[in-house]
Amino acid sequence: MTDDTNPLLQPSTLPYGLPDYSRIRPEHYLPAFRTAFEEHRSEISRITMVRSMPTFENTIEALERSGALLDRVSHAFYTVSSADATPEIQAIDEELAPLMAAHQDAVTLDGALYWRVQQVHAQLADLDLDAEQRYLVERHHREMTHAGAALDDEAKAHLTLLNQQLSTLSTTFERNLLNDTNDLAVVFDSPEELAGLGTGELSAAARAAQERGLDGRYLVTLPLFTGHPYLAQLSDRESRRRIMQASRSRASRGNANDNRAVLADIVRLRAERAALLGYPSHAAYVTADETAGTPEAVERMLRRLAAPAARNAAVEKAALQEIVDEVEAEPFTVEAHDWAFYTEKVRAARYDIDTAALRPWFEAERVLQDGVFSAATRLYGITFSERHDLVAYHPGARVFEVSNADGSALGLYVLDLYTRDSKRGGAWMNPIVSQSRLRGTAPVVVNNLNVAQPGDGEPTLLTLDEVTTLFHEFGHALHGLFAVVTYPHFSGTNVFRDFVEFPSQVNEMWILWPEVLDDYARHHVTGEPLDPAIVERLRATETFDQGHATSEYLAAAWLDQAWHRVGVDAEPGDVAAFEAAALSDIGLDEPAVPTRYSSAYFAHVFSGGYSAGYYSYIWSEVLDADTVEWFRENGGLTRENGDRFRERLLGVGGSKDPLEAYRDFRGRDAEIEPLLKRRGLDA
C-alpha cells in the first residue's frame, strides 16, 4: 500500500468531503494515522522553528491550520469504531489508543509551542484581533496550561505515560462492555414469555435471534442504561426480572469482560494525573475548565435536587405498591424490574394513557420527516433531501443533504437508526467533517440511535422515549450544522461539556408542540391523528414519575462525582461497596430505583468524554428549561425565534463564552425555577 492508493490520504471527491467509505478498508486506517501523525508533527515543528517573534498569524492561526489530515482520518475512523466496531476495527482501536494519546501530548505539551502561545497571550491587549481571534488565543493558552504544558520535562514524561495508560484502559472498558452486552442479550423460547409486546417488537426480537442463528426463538438486546423499554410492557414478572438482572450484571461477572478492575485503574490514574497537574481530584481538574468551576458547585446543585427527587420517588413507589397489592393475587414488594410496568398502570389509572399503545402513532419515517425535519424547517427554514447516491460507513446509515432557506448548501446529515451487535449502546451525535472557514470545510454530522429493527416489511414503531431521543440527538446535529466559525477549534459542538447538552435538550420541546405533533403523530395504518384529549393528558403528565427519573439520573451523576473526587492516596476498595456508600451519602440508595448507570457499564465516564461531567445534563437543563419559557413567551415555533436562537447560540459554536452567548440570547442569566417546576421539585 502507498499513500497514493490509501483513500484516507487523498481528499475526498464526494460532496462536502464525505469520506469515500465504499473504498476504505480496515487495513487503510493505521497507515493513514501514521502518515497523519508525521505530517502534523512536521507542521508543529515549522511553527516552533520560526525565527521571528510569535504573532497571531505565525503561531495561533498556523496551529489552527495544522492537523487537517489527522482530523480527517480521525473523524472517519472514530465514526466507524463507535457505530460498526467489528473485531477487526476493535483491534485497530486498541492499537491506536496509546498512539493517539502520545501524539496529542506531543503537541499539547510541546514546550516551544507553549512558549509561543504564551507570548501571543501576553500581548493580547495590544493586538488588533476580532472577538473570535481573541477568544481563540485565550482558549489555546488556557487549554495548554490546563493540560500540563507548563510542567517540567520529567513531569511531562510522567503525564504522557499516564495519558497513554488511560487511553488504553478506556478502550478496554468500551470493548468489554460491548462484548458483555452482546453476550447478555436475553434469549426467550416462546412469545408467551414476551406477552405485552406488540407485533413489531416481537418481530424485532425474532429477527435479532435469527441473526445469531437462534431460529424460532426471541432475543432481547440490552440498551446502554440500566432499564429497558420493554419493562413497561412485559406482563411476565420473571421475564422482566431476567432482563433487569442481565442489564445490571454487565461487565461485573468475573469473566474476561469484567470492568471492575479496569475502572479502578482508571480512577487511580486519573487521580494521579490530577495531582500531577496541581488539583486535589480529577473532578476538581475537570470542572476547573467548565462553566461549573468547582466540584463543590456541582455538589450543591446535586444535593439541592436529590432530597426532593428521593421524596417524590418514595411517593411514587407507594402508589405502585398500592396497585400491586390491589391487582395481584399474590402481592409482592415492588422491585426495580417492576417499576416501569406498574408505573404504566398508575399512569393509565390517573391519566387514562397507555404509552405502549401510542407506538402505532410514532412510525419512525413519519417522525423523522414530518416531525424532526419539519420542525427544523418551520423554525430555521432548512430543508432535507435524501442522497441515495452517497454511501455512508454502513448500509443502514442514510445520508441527507441539508439546505438553507435561500437554497444555499449547508451540509450533510447522516442517520443511523438501528441497533446491531457492532454498535455501542446509547445514542449520540458526532461530526464526520467539521465546518471551518479557514479550512474551507462544511459540516457532515451523524446521529446514531439503537432502535430495534423489525422484520422485513414491518413498520418501525417508536416509543415516546425513542421519539424524544431522536429529537434530542437531532438538536446536537443542528448545533453541528449551524455553527459558522473561522477556526476549527470552535466548530460545531466544541463547547464546554456542561453546556453541550443544552441545544439538544431545547430541541425536545417540539415533540408535543401542537402543529408539530399533529403532523407526525399519525396512525401508521389509518393516518388518524393522535386524539387531542390524549395529547392534553400527555402534557398533564409532564411531572409524572419524575421522582424516579430524576433520582436515577442524579444517582449516576453523583456516582460519577464520587469516583472522581477520590484523591491520589485514597483506596476506593470494592466497587459495589463504594457505590452503596456514595448513594447512601446523597440519599439515593432506594433499591427499587437503581442508578441509571452502574459503574461497570458507565460508558459515559469511563470510556466516553463525560468523566466528572455527567452532571452536565441537569446543569444544561437549567438553561434549557429557561429557554423553553422564552419560546413560549415569544410565540413559540416561528422563524423569527428560530433565527435568533440559531444566530446567537447555535451559530457561534465554541467561539464565545457559552454563558455570555446565553445572556446575549436571553437578555439575562438563566433561572433555575423553570427546571424545578418541570421536574416537580418546586414543592
The CATH class of the largest domain, by name, is Mainly Alpha
Named CATH architecture of the largest domain: Orthogonal Bundle
| Structural classification | alpha+beta
The protein's oligomeric status is single chain
The counted number of beta strands is: 7
Biggest β-sheet strands, sense, barrel = 5 strands, mixed
User: Termini distance?
Assistant: 67 Å
Chain-wise SSE layout:
Elements: H1 26-48, H2 56-65, H3 68-83, H4 87-108, H5 111-122, H6 131-147, H7 153-183, E1 186-188, H8 199-211, E2 218-220, H9 237-248, H10 260-276, H11 282-287, H12 295-327, H13 336-351, H14 364-380, E3 383-386, E4 397-403, E5 409-418, E6 428-433, E7 444-451, H15 464-482, H16 501-507, H17 514-520, H18 532-540, H19 546-564, H20 575-585, H21 603-606, H22 616-633, H23 639-648, H24 658-666, H25 673-678
Parallel strand pairs: 5-7
Antiparallel strand pairs: 1-2, 3-4, 4-5, 6-7
Helix pairs in contact: 1-2, 1-3, 1-4, 4-7, 5-6, 7-10, 12-13, 12-19, 14-15, 14-17, 15-16, 16-22, 19-20
